[in-house]
């Protein structure tokens, strides 16, 4: 059953020049249960205009804001780490101008209230996959990092990650996977070159699994590329649109 947990900021620090890490716990988070997917995400419930968090209600299996209370806004974010002993979760925020979540993360302080919904995820390589490729822009980097840190198989793994600048590369991941870093995220007319990056990736021989996360139109195009030009079965590709150019996403 889906649930929504009232929580607060426990800690915060800059992870790289373009990413802020926030630890969220307290409140109801002792009841939080992971979905088991390493790319799991939740909807964070941000304070309404009155500075307080209005918790959503589940209506027909969808989260809705009560009409009679100040409206909080929801945004989907990856759980970078579940800290069971501390009954908290870690969330990494890409910093950019004019974003609700980005602005909140910049100003967040310990004790600030926030809501967290139940998680869900999609990363599921088939048993017969002989290799794994991860393709993501900066918004998919936290999920990529968790997938690699929780990797439970010895299959060869390659990652292709688009970040704003090389200072944003999380070099500790290089020991976990064959990492390929690309710069320019956020500074091109369409904000991302993820599709062009995917086109340049050489798919190994044999049967493998590709996980893609980033801007929605780009991930859709990459899914089509892998199916139509590379001949990959749909069950061997997971492509997730984390954001949409020019739009906010609840």
From TrEMBL:
GO terms for molecular function: oxidoreductase activity. Belongs to the SIP oxidoreductase family. SUPFAM superfamilies: Riboflavin synthase domain-like. Residues 2-126 form the FAD-binding FR-type domain. Gene3D superfamilies: Nucleotide-binding domain of ferredoxin-NADP reductase (FNR) module (3.40.50.80), Translation factors (2.40.30.10). It holds the Pfam family FAD_binding_9. It comes from the Bacteria. This is NADPH-dependent ferric siderophore reductase.
């Amino acid at each position: 059953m889906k649930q929504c947990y009232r929580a607060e900021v426990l800690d915060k620090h800059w992870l790289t020049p373009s990413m802020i890490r926030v630890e969220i716990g307290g409140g109801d988070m002792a009841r939080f249960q992971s979905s088991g997917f390493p790319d799991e995400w939740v909807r964070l419930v941000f304070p309404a205009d009155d500075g307080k968090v209005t918790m959503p209600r589940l209506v027909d299996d969808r989260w809705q804001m009560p009409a009679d209370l100040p409206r909080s806004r929801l945004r989907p974010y990856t759980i970078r780490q579940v800290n069971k002993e501390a009954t908290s979760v870690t969330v990494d925020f890409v910093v950019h101008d004019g974003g609700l979540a980005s602005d909140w993360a910049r100003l967040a302080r310990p004790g600030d209230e926030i809501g967290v919904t139940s998680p869900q995820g999609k990363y599921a390589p088939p048993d017969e996959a002989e290799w794994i490729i991860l393709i993501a822009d900066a918004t998919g980097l936290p999920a990529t990092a968790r997938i690699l840190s929780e990797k439970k198989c010895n299959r060869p793994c390659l990652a292709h990650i688009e970040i704003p600048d090389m200072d944003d590369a999380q070099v500790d991941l290089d020991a976990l996977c064959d990492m390929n870093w690309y710069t320019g995220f956020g500074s091109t007319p369409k904000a991302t070159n993820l599709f062009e990056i995917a086109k340049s990736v050489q798919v190994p021989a044999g049967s493998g699994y590709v996980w893609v996360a980033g801007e929605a139109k780009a991930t859709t195009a990459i899914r089509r590329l892998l199916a139509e030009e590379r001949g990959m079965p749909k069950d061997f590709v997971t492509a997730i649109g984390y954001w949409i150019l020019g739009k906010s996403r609840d």
